[in-house]
Amino acid sequence: MNDEYEGMRQDHEQTIRRYQDRFRQFGYSPRTLGWDKGKQEVRFDCLTSLFDLNNASILDVGCGFGDLNRVLRKKCTNYTYLGIDLVEELVATGREKYPEPHIRFMAGDFLSASFDRRFDYVLSSGMFNHRFQYGDNELFIRTCMEKAFQLCDIGMAFDYLSDKVEYTLPHTYHSSPERILSYAYRLSRNVVLRNDYMPFEFALIVFKDDSYSRENTLFNRLNRPTLTDGA
Asked: H or E stretch including 181?
């Protein structure tokens, strides 16, 4: 296990260098983050689609420039945001682009970082898309999901490249939706897998509370007292 985590550390160092190189080339641009088709807001909209973000606290893992805030500004009020990313240059640019006091950033590794609080929601977009050279992608995904679940009070949402594709690139990692769903079910029964917004990507949304009403057999987050058995 220690060797596997050492491999992930080496991959993280490569990730930092890759994004630093891109930042020097493209600056504040989706191309720095590897997004060149203008669809990042579609991803953000999907990840936040089932959450009530008003007055919520949000942790954005692998935040890049923090552009999730463009969607959050439209969807909710009075939220607080913390973005964490490996790459200091991206975080520094995020602080410049989003200087509001309720928006904060930190540079660091999510898995080794210590947080002095919990968050209503933990979100991440694109963090699992790069194929590791040294570490185990599946171990990284599972460990990130487990830590995010521990840190969230209401829910978490991540997106993934799907292995249901016509071709792959050598540097990209494509996850099995079935396997990711199985990881989620170890954490909660209250999960949503969305593959309805792009054909070769999917999003996983996990709610922390999977308690339910025995009267109407609905999850309590959807509790509707007017519904009765037999529906």
From this structure: helix 177-185
CA distances from 149 to 6, 113, 138, 186, 207 (A): 23, 15, 16, 11, 9
Closest CA to 128 of 104, 159, 87, 98: 159
∠ CA 125-129-132, nearest 5°, is: 135
| The model's pTM | 0.92
Residue 217 neighbours by CB under 8 Å, 6+ apart: 229
Q: Provide the 8-state DSSP code for 166.
A: S
Structure tokens at 183: 């990881």
Residue 29: pLDDT band by 50, 70, 90 thresholds? very high
Taking the CA atoms of the chain, what radius of gyration do you get in angstroms?
18
B/e letters for 139-172, b = 16+ CB within 10 Å, e = fewer, are ebbebbbebbbebbebbbbbbbbbbeeeeeeeee
For the domain bounded by 2-24+39-209, which CATH number is listed? 3.40.50.150
36: tokens are: 């060149």
How sure is the predictor about 3, in pLDDT bands with cuts at 50, 70 and 90? low
Going from N- to C-terminal start, the domains of the chain cover 2-24+39-209
Check pLDDT > 70 for residue 224. no
